[in-house]
Write a structure and sequence with these properties.
The protein has about 350 residues and is of the alpha+beta class. The longest helix is centred in the N-terminal third of the chain and has 76 residues.
Length: about 350
């Protein structure tokens, strides 16, 4: 994908340079104070037959050069369009793979807790009376934790489904309005009797390699705005965000939970909280289950924002306020804007004691 992005950038530069040449040619042509083409005038203004032949050959070379220029421009524009489509497909595939990886990580953690409870139950059957009491307490704790996570995941799935339905309705409404406007514009265009002059223009193509995080619309670690944020909030919240900000630009590491190993999403949040005296569970699903749920309007810098791709909580970030979060995602530890790509996956906000209360 890196090679494809580099190829697109080279083609964009070629298109841009060629567009400038074409624009300059058009300006020079339009600047001619004449009814006829400057090429025609150049030919018929010849003073002799010999000069006529020379000028004709010169004009032909210029026209051939312009034709080649236009052909190359058209070919590059087509190539650029295809490359953009290919890049978008690769980014979409990568996003899906990453989302599935996060969901599998959360499911694996739940299975580990359930396996622990079963193991403890088995040990109870062969333990002494004194050992049974401790094993039974540990088993009940593990079973309660698993039950709580399952309930939270179910709640997140329902929230994700509701958010998806709302988004689909909004998109359908927007499409309907766009179709109605297009129909209205078409009718108005037919009714007009004024013939407008044809304008010469060039087309530009821009590419979008924003990866939001787990998608194609988000921040990259190379973006200029990836600096430690200034936030409003409690001293504890500021300290947590300051700790997480130390790792802006570092790569995402699945299962990572320390600066030495690197971070995944919940590894970054649990580490940043722990360094400031607040112990929270390890995974995104566990953090969601253990947090006090708050509304988007109540959320403050230092709270957590949780996401689901349809199968329970699979991603978490530290809310910064003003619709932004700091999170570890597939393009690394970055600051992301919630409006746009991320908002359709939000299932809720959570708060932990001693951070904002």
């Amino acid at each position: 994908m890196v090679d494809l992005e580099a190829s697109i950038e080279v083609t964009k530069e070629d298109v841009s340079e060629r567009s400038a040449i074409i624009q300059n040619r058009l300006k020079a042509y339009q600047a001619q104070d004449t009814t006829f083409s400057p090429y025609v005038e150049a030919i018929f203004g010849a003073e002799s037959f010999t000069k006529l032949i020379t000028r004709t050959l010169s004009v032909k070379k210029i026209i051939d050069a312009d034709t080649r220029l236009q052909t190359e421009q058209k070919q590059d524009m087509t190539s650029l369009s295809k490359a953009n489509a290919k890049l978008k497909k690769q980014q979409s595939d990568l996003t899906l793979q990453f989302q599935q990886l996060q969901e599998q990580q959360e499911q694996l953690q739940l299975k580990k807790i359930e396996a622990k409870a079963k193991s403890l139950k088995l040990k109870e059957s062969i333990a002494t009376a004194k050992e049974k009491e401790a094993l039974q307490a540990a088993r009940k704790k593990a079973e309660a934790e698993a039950k709580k996570i399952k309930a939270a995941q179910l709640q997140a799935e329902k929230a994700a489904k509701k958010a998806a339905q709302k988004l689909a309705q909004q998109e359908a409404l927007a499409q309907k309005q766009a179709d109605e406007q297009a129909k209205k514009d078409s009718i108005e265009e037919k009714e007009t009797t004024t013939v407008q002059p044809v304008a010469t223009s060039t087309t530009s193509i821009t590419t979008s390699t924003q990866n939001a995080g787990n998608g194609t619309n988000g921040a990259k670690v190379t973006d200029e705005n990836q600096q430690a944020p200034t936030v409003e909030g409690t001293s504890k919240a500021k300290a947590i965000i300051a700790e997480a900000s130390k790792y802006l630009g570092t790569a995402y590491v699945w299962g990572g939970s320390t600066p030495k190993t690197g971070f995944d999403c919940s590894g970054l949040t649990s580490w940043s909280f722990k360094q400031n005296g607040v112990t929270i569970p390890r995974t995104a699903a566990q953090q969601y289950a253990a947090s006090t749920k708050i509304s988007a309007n109540e959320a403050k810098a230092g709270d957590l924002v949780f996401f689901s791709y349809g199968k329970g909580v699979a991603h978490v970030g530290i809310y910064l306020g003003d619709g932004q979060m700091l999170n570890a995602q597939n393009s690394g530890v970055v600051i992301d804007a919630l409006p746009g790509y991320w908002e359709k996956y939000i299932v809720g906000y959570g708060r932990f004691h001693n951070v904002n209360n």
